[in-house]
Amino acid sequence: MTDHQSNKWTSTSEDGRNQLGIVVWSLIWVLSFLAAQVAIRAGWLEGDLQVAAAIGVVTGLGVLWILSYRRFFRGADELMRAIQLEALAWTVGIGFVAAFSYSLLEEAEMVTESPTTAIPVAMVATYIVAVIVGQRRFS
Amino acid sequence: MKNRLKVLRAERDLTQRELAEALGVSRQTVNAIETGKFDPSLPLAFKLSKTFNRAIEDIFDPHDLD
């Protein structure tokens, strides 16, 4: 089965759709997060109910992103799964180590800012680099 | 693992993409197997065996195990 939606990393057009789904849901989720963050900081949301609703929407979109990634992973062929597993191992490892190391820095009062966005950003960057490295390793 | 995949594919005048479609994997997977960078799972090895009508040992070199 060949069509323009498949590429050298996909075996079927469904794989191509799953890959596109992750990109789309990632963008939607990140944009919703940024929009909610701006709205909260700027005081555009009136009352706890609106704030909770905004957070609920962002969280719900995050869950949909998780489901799209799971769909992609289950449909991926074995080489892509191997690459994704290695990337996830690095990502989770970096996340854990960074979080615990940062907590020690906080204990030692060497830092005062919360790492609530720094660590996820580091994890995303790690994941992207790990996937690129993995794809190049098998090219 | 060393293998004869490229030779077998050439004998049947198949492109990597055509073989990948027949196996239900990506072209990159076929390329990675041919170049010895990736070892297929047992189900995929059996699919290769069936596609080329050869025993798995005739496709992959069993003496090239670490």
Provide keyphrases for this structure.
heterodimer; A: 139 residues; mainly alpha; 4 helices; disordered N terminus; B: 66 residues; 58% helix; 0% strand
Describe this protein's structure.
The complex is a heterodimer of chains A (139) and B (66). With 139 residues, chain A is mostly helical. Chain A contains 4 helices and no strands. Chain A starts with 12 loop residues before the first helix and ends with a helix. Mean pLDDT of chain A is 87; it is low at 1-5. Chain B has 66 residues and is mainly α. Chain B starts with a helix and ends in a 7-residue tail after the last helix. The relative contact order of chain B is 0.22. The A-B interface holds A 1-2, 8-12, 15, 77-80, 82, 135, 137-139 and B 17, 20-21, 23-29, 31-32, 37-38, 40-41, 44.
Chain-wise SSE layout:
The complex is a heterodimer of chains A (139) and B (66).
Chain A: H1 13-42, H2 47-75, H3 78-107, H4 118-137
Chain B: H1 5-11, H2 16-23, H3 27-34, H4 42-52, H5 56-59
Structural class of chain B: mainly alpha
Biggest β-sheet of chain B, characterized? none
> Runs of chain B with pLDDT <50, length 5+?
none
Strand content of chain B: under 5%
Structural class of chain A: mainly alpha
Number of helices of chain A: 4
Number of strands of chain A: 0
